[in-house]
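Example 3.2
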Amino acid sequence: TMHSTVTNTSRLVATTGGTYQVNARISFASNVTGIRTIDVRKNAAGSSAGGTRVGFNSASAVGGSTVTSVNVSVDVVLAANDYVEAFGLQSSGGALSTDVSAGLTVFQMRMVQTT
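Structure, written as tokens:
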């Protein structure tokens, strides 16, 4: 019930107030140029500048046949109906796909303690 495949599909929603562990990882296709970032935000309304940042990470690009992954693992206190979204950014100068094979790109949340 924390994720809808119909409305607000980018969100993981707290159904009960408490502390949640949020894990997010984005793996970008191989490219040697630029940086890759992941930004996890609370109640951002689909905007990478909205809401409150609760986690952030960046990495320099890796070349060859290796994907570049960035990840965040953070505990977040959420009230009922608060939500988190993960935003990825890359600065290679062109379009760059994410790699979703073998669970390389994930976004998950689990409750660890009720309020």
